[in-house]
Design a protein that fits this description.
The protein is an alpha/beta fold and 192 residues long. 36% of the residues lie in helices and 21% in strands. A five-stranded mixed beta sheet has the order 3-2-1-4-5, sandwiched between helices. The protein has a two-stranded antiparallel sheet with strand order 6-7.
Length: 192
């Protein structure tokens, strides 16, 4: 099963008048880990045709807050519908088990003993300052963390989080995470 773990960064943020309107956000970078090659890579808007060739062959997309944020923003640039590809949103899985959403940072610190190197707002600032490679590196690091959390959850059936300086377990039902789904019917942009 070819799984693509991914994350996006945007080049702008919501304004007071466009609050929560994803159509107002613009992609700066998308980073991925491809389970088939075990490689990390990143793509700017201009490089998206290279990414589509990979995503169109994916059996599964893995992300964090990806169903509600990353996929809808990527769909602005894609001729098909990426939401038709089987996806696993780790934030949704955690919310189902715990009853509330957690930041990726909280899970990374408690489960993997690593911290994030920034946040989405900082990435927007870096992009505006022309620090494009820094944004790419940050985005790839988020993908690396997301992939490690996914692998940990598959192996242990749980993740960990900090709650008032106490580390607690979140039991996750991972039994069907890697079950292949029927091939999606998406509009491909490439001639196969």
């Amino acid at each position: 099963m070819r799984a693509i773990t991914f994350d996006i960064e945007t080049s702008n943020v919501f304004s007071a008048t466009t609050r929560n309107d994803l159509s107002q956000l613009n992609l700066s970078v998308v980073a991925i880990h491809d389970s088939e090659t075990n490689e990390f890579s990143s793509y700017s808007q201009e490089e998206l045709p290279k990414l589509w060739a990979i995503l169109e062959k994916a059996d599964m997309l893995i992300g964090y807050n990806s169903d509600a944020f990353d996929i809808p923003i990527l769909n602005k640039y894609y001729a098909g519908d990426l939401s038709k590809i089987h996806s696993l949103d780790l934030m949704v899985e955690v919310q189902k088990a715990l009853g509330r959403r957690l930041r990726l940072q909280s899970l990374a610190e408690a489960t993997l003993n690593v911290g994030k190197s920034g946040d989405g707002l900082k990435a927007v600032e870096w992009w505006a300052q022309g620090l494009y490679d820094k944004v790419r590196e940050y985005c790839i690091e988020d993908v690396r963390i997301t992939r490690k959390l996914f692998d940990y959850a598959l192996a242990k059936g749980m993740l960990k989080y900090k709650d008032l300086n106490t580390i607690k377990d979140i039991k996750l039902d991972t039994r069907n995470w890697m079950t292949p789904r029927e091939a999606p019917s998406i509009t491909h942009t490439l001639p196969f």
